[in-house]
């Protein structure tokens, strides 16, 4: 599927989570374009839920080999609001919050910002654990990644 400007259209569902926060965490992403589907997942031994939410979006966008129109769905308001609203002020203030504190997870926000500049991204929020098929699939990838990490411990 392509847009009128002939960019491929990709729908991405992302999720991140931890067992304990911080604790062992995982991220998952489901990418769909036409008849093509790709699943991505990963885990870290000691991380936070927010870092995993950001990592899911970064890794999904990094996977795309050329510029795309992306509809990215997340159940994280932190991720969606951070990249669509808050980031502009953070950049203007040299990666400081409005209260002049360092932005948490600035390393990942910088990387996500770089990845979004490669694509035309529309950000969408979906309520987590509400039965939305794409979100449920991403959540399952998160849990698979954490289970695999812990089984290999």
From TrEMBL:
Its cofactor is Mg(2+). Its EC number is 3.1.26.4. InterPro entries: RNase_H, RNaseH-like_sf, RNaseH_domain, RNaseH_sf, RNaseHI. It comes from the Bacteria. SUPFAM superfamilies: Ribonuclease H-like. Residues 6-147 form the RNase H type-1 domain. It catalyses: Endonucleolytic cleavage to 5'-phosphomonoester. Mg(2+) 2 binds at residues 15, 139. PROSITE patterns: RNASE_H_1. Binds 1 Mg(2+) ion per subunit. May bind a second metal ion at a regulatory site, or after substrate binding. Mg(2+) 1 binds at residues 15, 53, 75. It holds the Pfam family RNase_H. It is found in: Cytoplasm. Keywords: Cytoplasm, Endonuclease, Hydrolase, Magnesium, Metal-binding, Nuclease. Monomer. Belongs to the RNase H family. HAMAP family: RNase_H. PANTHER family: RIBONUCLEASE H1 (PTHR10642:SF26). Endonuclease that specifically degrades the RNA of RNA-DNA hybrids. This is Ribonuclease H. It comes from Halomonas litopenaei. The lineage of its organism: Bacteria, Pseudomonadati, Pseudomonadota, Gammaproteobacteria, Oceanospirillales. The gene is rnhA.
């Amino acid at each position: 599927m392509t847009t009128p400007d002939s960019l491929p259209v990709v729908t991405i569902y992302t999720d991140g989570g931890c067992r304990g926060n911080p604790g062992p965490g995982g991220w998952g992403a489901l990418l769909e374009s036409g008849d093509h589907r790709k699943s991505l997942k990963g885990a870290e031994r000691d991380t936070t839920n927010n870092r995993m939410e950001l990592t899911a979006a970064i890794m999904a966008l990094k996977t795309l080999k050329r510029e795309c129109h992306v509809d990215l769905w997340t159940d994280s308001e932190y991720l969606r609001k951070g990249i669509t609203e808050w980031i502009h002020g953070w950049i203007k203030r040299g990666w400081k919050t409005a209260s002049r504190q360092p932005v948490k997870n600035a390393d990942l926000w910088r990387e996500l910002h770089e990845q979004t500049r490669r694509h035309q991204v529309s950000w969408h929020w979906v309520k987590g654990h509400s039965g939305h098929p794409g979100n449920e699939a991403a959540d399952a990838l998160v849990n698979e990644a954490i289970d695999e990490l812990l089984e290999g411990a």
